[in-house]
Design brief:
It is a single chain. This protein has one domain (3-190). The radius of gyration is 16 Å and the shape is globular. The protein is 61% helix and 0% strand. With 205 residues, the protein is an all-alpha fold.
Length: 205
């Protein structure tokens, strides 16, 4: 586990959850395409409420989110992250896909509080977070958590030079995904989106 992930773990999870996340990481590591074992991952995801990967089709060719307009990538990214775990993809992909969930929500929040429209917002995630912090739109503690997420997200997204030894373990992927789910729900609540406090059925298709 990377040191950046350890910080995210302390920010977002209690002792019982940390034990569970270790078990879920082992499922991701060793039970590729095993729906029976993966159900434990998605039952925890479901317990967090909101529209998470658990409710998304396993087959990423099936895209139920086109009607979600600017929220399309918010939920589509979680579908990809779920698929990454199910087929045993590298944790880097889980991190970059989960991170897009947060990045998209932050852009939407900026668009709701400025003249900068969502599709025109090409600013880096850090700059958008600073804008929301400066305007007191996000409370300090939440900004703090998101900035810690951003540190790991940027490593996964931008640093692909093998000489830098930037590698990610299954623990990094699982912890990052579920931290994004928790923080994403907080952002969806701020945006008053209808999904944030609902529970959905687990999709096995």
């Amino acid at each position: 586990m990377r040191k950046e992930t350890e910080i995210i773990l302390k920010d977002n999870f209690n002792y019982q959850e940390i034990i569970l996340l270790n078990e879920l990481a082992n499922i991701y590591r060793s039970k590729i395409r095993n729906t029976i074992y993966h159900e434990k991952i998605w039952k925890y995801d479901q317990s967090l409420k909101g529209l998470g990967g658990y409710a998304c089709p396993l087959n990423v060719i099936v895209n139920p989110f086109n009607q979600f307009n600017e929220y399309r990538n918010v939920f589509r990214s979680l579908q990809y992250a779920r698929s990454d775990m199910y087929i045993g993809s590298r944790a880097r992909f889980v991190i970059t896909d989960s991170g897009l969930h947060i990045e998209s929500l932050i852009k939407i929040l900026v668009s709701k509080n400025s003249k900068l429209k969502f599709i025109k917002n090409t600013r880096m995630l850090g700059k958008n977070i600073s804008f929301l912090s400066d305007k007191n739109i996000l409370e300090y503690k939440l900004c703090y958590k998101i900035k810690h997420l951003t540190n790991l997200y940027n490593l996964a997204k931008h640093d692909t030079d093998h000489k830098n030894n930037i590698t990610f373990d299954y623990d990094d992927g699982i912890i990052f995904y579920f931290a994004c789910r928790k923080i994403g729900n907080e952002l969806l609540k701020i945006l008053d989106h209808h999904t944030y406090n609902k529970s959905y059925k687990i999709s096995f298709k």
